[in-house]
Design goal:
- By secondary structure, this protein is α+β, with helices and mostly antiparallel strands.
- It has 2 helices and 7 strands; from the N terminus they run H-E-E-E-E-E-E-H-E.
- It has a 4-stranded mixed β-sheet with strand order 1-6-7-3, with no helix packed on it.
- The longest helix has 15 residues.
- It is flat.
- The relative contact order is 0.14.
């Protein structure tokens, strides 16, 4: 009786993995789906909104590609991050794009296509009466 059970169990195992004598191959194992690493967020967003006062060197926006273009007193970083060059208030505007002649957008704009893009500016506060001549003191 034990011999017949052993023959039946060995024949069943040999049907699943022939040639391995009852061992299941590792090659057909399923991947574990819940062990994948989750990438962290890149924190791409507008950091300073319109009307806020910023200091020089402060990050205005992080972006992938040119979603926002640099305007007055704004510098474009290596990874398309926008930085304030001077102290002032942030202004966000939609303006028509005027590309350089080596840009792929130059031809369509010259043919009459109007392309509107968002620009981020930093407007410096006006200096009123802060400086006097030495003869006026």
């Amino acid at each position: 009786m034990a011999a017949s059970i052993a023959r039946v169990s060995s024949s069943l195992l040999s049907n699943f993995s022939p040639g391995l004598g009852g061992l299941i191959s590792v090659r057909f194992a399923k991947p574990v789906r819940n062990k994948r690493k989750r990438t962290k967020g890149k924190h791409r967003k507008i950091y300073e909104h319109e009307g806020t006062f910023v200091h020089a060197g402060q990050v205005l926006a992080k972006q992938l590609g040119l979603r926002f273009y640099p305007g007055e007193n704004v510098k474009l970083g290596r990874d398309n991050t926008l930085y304030a060059i001077t102290d002032g208030k942030v202004l966000i505007s939609a303006e028509s794009l005027s590309p350089y002649p080596d840009s792929p957008l130059y031809g369509p704009v010259q043919n009459g296509l109007v392309i509107k893009k968002k620009f981020i500016h930093v407007l410096c506060p006006p200096l009123l009466g802060k400086f006097r001549l030495v003869s006026q003191i």
